[in-house]
Amino acid sequence: MSQSGSRRQRGFALLAVVLGVFVVPLGLRAVNLAVRPPDAAPSYIPSVESPRVRAPFDAGAVAALREAANDYILIGDSMAGTRIDPGHLSRLVGGRGAAALLHPGSGPAYWYLTFKNFVVNARLKPRFVVFFFRDENLTDTLFRLYPSSLDRVARNQEPVLDELLAARARGTFYRLHGAARRVYQYDQTRAWLEPILVRAPVAWSARRRARKTLLDSINNQVFTLEALRPMVAADMATSSVEALDFDRNLPTSVLPEILRLSKRSGIRVAFIRVQRRPAADGPPPQSPALQEYVRKLRGYLESGGAVFHDDWGDPDQPLSVYEDGDHVKRDFRRVYTELFFRKHPEIFR
Amino acid sequence: MIFHSLDFAVFFVVLAAAYWMLPRRGQNALLLAGSYVFYGWVHPWFVLLIAATTAVDYGAALGMARRPARRKAFLWLALAANLGFLGFFKYFNFFADNVAAVLAAAGWQVSRPALNVALPVGISFYTFQALSYVIDVYWQRTPARKSLLDLGAFIAFFPNLLAGPIMRATTLLPQIERERRFSASAARDATLLLAWGFFKKLVIADNVGVIANKVFALQSPEFHVLWAGVFAFCIQIYADFSAYADIARGAAKWLGIDLIKNFEHPYLAKGPTEFWRRWNISLSTWFRDYVFLPVAYRLSDRMASDRRVLFDAATWAYVAGMIVTMLTAGLWHGASWNFVIWGAYHGGLLALARIVGVARKRRRRVRRWLAPLQIAGMFLLTNLGWLLFRETDLAQLVRHLGLSPFQSSVLGRQTGAYLFFLTLLYSLPLWVQSVWAESGGRDFVAALTRDEERPEAWAVAVQALLAGLLFAAILVLRSTTSLDFIYFRF
User: Fold this and answer.
1) Of A93, A130, A317, B85, which has the most beta carbons under 10 Å away?
2) Is there a contact between A184 and B472 if contact means CB atoms under 8 Å apart?
């Protein structure tokens, strides 16, 4: 064979391999057709999640909130959960009291959906909605996207959140990801294949009777929040330099949407930055990048009509009131609730 | 920029397309500019650092060539600058912490200065690559280069910049200096290497990495859970690091440049010496040539060769040289005592292997049936090493080492078994490939990298199918938790 013929052959071989990369995965569509589709529906955040069986929206909680018509609604995670005693706060504020929509292990997506679906769209009219967060959590849109918390507060479609997550998760080129998902339908394959993979080792790990509950036992008894190292929660949330770039992260965060909803509904919002675990000799150290981030966050929120308060450096919250990680001791909860009430006349007047 | 991002995909396609349209000098200019863009993507100031390293090494090497009488002075200058950058950014806080701790123990309370800057990613890798050039010029193994452009492209070559393999000046620089022509066969092999590398990273390493991270986040894991986590980390670090090496080799191959293989199925090693011939080969050989051999030779020269204390002088020189080398290698991985312990552990294993080897030299016979036991034994020792490597809290480490399998609860045993089998399931392709290649079959990747004149149609079809299946597996099974390459932090 001539040299040019051989070169052409090698060229075709390269083309075949490159084509193989893109053509073979189309077989996933055929596989999906052959496998009976599971009882899964497309996710409300399809950009970052496969179709799955979801827990229903908690309409009962919305009805209860409507009935209570509280003056104050608190939204946050275990940081607020260990600090705020809603009953005590209700007694302090009087009137129609306060409701706490706090979910441990929740993040900004949950906080936004709770505000949108439980408060604004439910046409509640509280005097203030207060969000509790740590450091850069508010602009870290991908932080804690756990179905266990999100399902309760999400409608079947959440296009605004999905768009934000897609932009955050996939960077500039997220639309390409979306196109690939539509062409190859790999999410559908994942929906039935992944549970098979995850469940397969159960049969080799436990006796027949224990198999049914093994995964639940592992999640609920071995990998629990209490079983984590004290500082792991804090360590896991240690801010990276990128996470502290406020200007870069703001457009793909839930903050602009929360402020827009607040303005539209006339519901005032406040944001409380809780203090992380202090050092032995003073408040928790803050990098210059974090200080700059907080300065910009405050400026943005206050210019948008929200109230911002920073617990950092509060002498009433020394190391001795902390328990594990950034959580405070149970007996400090009442004290913090009173401090919170006393230090925010702009909210509780 | 990280390999598993669309930013990199677009960057690479644009760069490779432009690259093959340019003459050699244009290619090198593009390589240098592209490498700096790649390196400074998140932190542009990193580029200043690598440019400074390049300038110092360029000047020092030329100085050695022009003023041979002052060669040593130029070598010290380059060593001080390169290791100074590395030491300052990587070890300053570690050093300050430990000095403050020692002073505190002596009763002096001092507030230590802290360096709050990001560690320049890959600094350990490119510093060693740059050092190999200066030292080789000093040893007259390679001439000093006059082209700053070529040297800059060598030090900053983006495919292996962040996590190796660490290339020697004698291997990579000549490739950068010669004419390169596009080869369809090489590009085909490169595509398969890329697919295999991305599969290992996104499907294997990231999925089992989640298991390891969960276990090491526990305050008091039971014996079975802990060791399942160690096994998961063992798979993660190999899949992750070798994935980076494969992607680096694939990307370089597309540009007509061959990087060395950094791994040879290390978990099938029958002993510590063999393990280090198979694991992170470029770093092992770097330490062998630039640390171990000079130290061992120097010690050997100083010891009386006829004096014998249990073993001969050469064995003692080997043992001491190995301990020094592995302690340095441990510290190279990170500014933390657990890495030093890990280095000491492996140094001890290597020294022990040497001593046992010397003692058994005369009655050594190859027993093939022993091989699986030797492999299993070495794998267990390697896992113990990974526990030392992964656990950064020394108090926790002591606790882990005191755990007994008999204290585990039923749920602890079941959880450990479940995590072990789940890790095994995800890592099955890795084991199959290793065992297949080791038992004489064609290595998946090596077989695919044959440079055929006329590829057979069936072989091309198999390659296309394999590349497509790997891509499909990545789409379907990639972890939803994207983890950084582990070796980025070193």
Assistant:
1) A130
2) yes
Residue A213 lies in a domain: no
* H or E element, residue A20: helix A3-23
Whether B47 shows a pLDDT value over 70: the answer reads yes
Instruction: Based on the residue annotation, tell me whether B333 is a catalytic residue of this protein.
Output: yes
pLDDT tens track for A307-348? 999 999 999 999 889 887 788 888 899 999 999 999 999 998
> Which of B196, B225, B415, B465 should one mutate to test binding to chain A, selecting the residue with the greatest count of A CBs within 10 A?
B415
CA A26, A29, A31, A34: dihedral to nearest 10 degrees?
Answer: -150
Cβ-based contacts of A6 with chain B (< 8 Å): 453-454
Average pLDDT, chain B: 88
A323 belongs to a structural domain:
yes
- Entry field: residues in chain B: 490
Annotate B385-411 with DSSP letters as a single string: HHHHHH---HHHHHHHHT--GGG--HH
SS (H, E, C) B134-200: HHHHHCCCCCCCCCHHHHHHHHHCHHHCCCCCCCCHHHHHHHHHCCCCCCHHHHHHHHHHHHHHHHH
Determine, yes or no, domain membership for A37: no
Task: Name residue A74's beta-bridge partners.
Answer: A100, A130
Q: pLDDT per residue over B273-312, tens digit each?
A: 999 999 999 999 999 999 999 888 888 777 766 666 677 7
Asked if residue B444 has pLDDT above 60, the reply is no
Does residue B310 sit in helix, strand or coil? Answer: coil
| B388, A220, A229, A144 alpha-carbon torsion, rounded to 10° | 100
In this structure, what CATH number is given to the domain that contains residue A70? 3.40.50.1110
A196 touches chain B (CB under 8 A): no
Residues B129-158 have pLDDT tens digits of 999 999 999 999 999 999 999 999 999 999
Taking only Cα atoms into account, the Rg of chain B, rounded to an integer number of angstroms, comes to 24
- ipTM given for this complex: 0.79
Q: Which residue segment(s) compose the domain that A312 sits in?
A: 60-155+224-348
Cβ atoms of B254 and B205 closer than 8 Å: no
Please say if the pLDDT value at position A162 is more than 70: yes
The total domain count for chain A is: 1
Query: Strand, helix or coil at A270?
Result: strand
- Residue A125 counted as domain residue: yes
Residue B161 clears pLDDT 70, i.e. is over it: yes
Query: Does the beta-carbon distance from B464 to A173 stay under 8 Å?
Result: no
